[in-house]
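WARN no homologs supplied; continuing
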Amino acid sequence: MEGLFGELTPQIQHALRKEGYAVPTPVQAQAIPPQVEGKDLFGSAQTGTGKTAAFTIPILQELAGNMKLPESGQPRALILAPTRELAAQIGKSIETYGHFSNVSSSVIFGGVSQKPQEKSLDQGVDIVVATPGRLLDLMGQGCVDLSQVETFILDEADRMLDMGFIPDIEKVIAQLPKDRRNSFFSATVPKAVEDLAGKILVDPVRVTIDPEKPTVEKIEQRVLYVDRSKKDELLIDLIRKRKIKRAIVFAKMKYRASRICEQLDRAGISSAPIHGDKSQAARTRALGEFRSGNIKVLVATDIAARGIDVDNITDVFNYDLPVEAETYVHRIGRTARAGAEGHAWTFCSKDEVELLHEVEKFIKKKITDEIDHEFHRESILNAVRTFKTSRRKQAQKKDKKKKPKQWALKRKPRSIKDLSN
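OK structure emitted
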């Protein structure tokens, strides 16, 4: 192998070749070198960018360069993940890239018997991948000692924040040795995540990878102007009239997602909420019911919906417009997969006019107005038109200011003849 992968141990290179990987993804190319050099890292990258390998490969490289017999319950590397699914995925990545390396690992999470996990830890492992709750339980029982951890990885920090895990993470960090390397990954970086990173990282290298935008050509997009108080009725009306079998509704806040489900259930429409206040078992159960068709509608917040991968979703509802315009594209990209057609419905109330404008500016397209419904508010549509006109005039003024001024000559230049007089 050549390039970045060619600098890794022969065992890791062998594993990469076996999996058919010859060239690193952008996040791997930027994130692996500083970590191998022992630097802290702050990575902003979403799932599907090769992020997991971007932090598991450096750990395997580090451990291979300083092999030790693992002590009972004393891992040398700790990776925290918000959910059992993600923890299992990370564990699989370690198995894949560490297949030919003499490195051991254990994945621990709640919702299952902890006896096998205790046994694995007791035998001694180099790497522990864990969800915060189960890790703290095992630490409290004396099954895990973090005093020998040399590398600490926190994955999907924004999702940890959404699920209320930050206090647990801080308890874990308090038990780690000060002399360690840290890597911190988060798809989005709200202030609370930035603050947490500041407590963990020391002079970090920052890596930001923008995800590819999903295609939206085959998605029929509509915007409906409605009072916020009528959004529930409009949603129920659309689901009934269109006889929708599988849809996702996106809400901005956790409490709102739960309230929408209550309204849908009262209307006889089967639904389930997916957000950070729901237990892992509840989210897994809801997702299973949704996949099987027992539930027609999943109501989700953006961060909690990140791990949802379900085919044949016919409709996506933006009950609330997202604050970040890019989020709109990722939301509606959950329909019209594998060449199928899909529908995206956006509810716009008076306080969301500017957010709608930002979305249309981002996708470089005017979303079709859907006014043929009993809840339509012409005043909101007029407010949208007024706002767009105002923004257009502001842009024109800025353009005029940018143009160089053409200074007019106040009087005709004097000729040579004039100068001679």
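The longest strand covers residues 219-225.
OK
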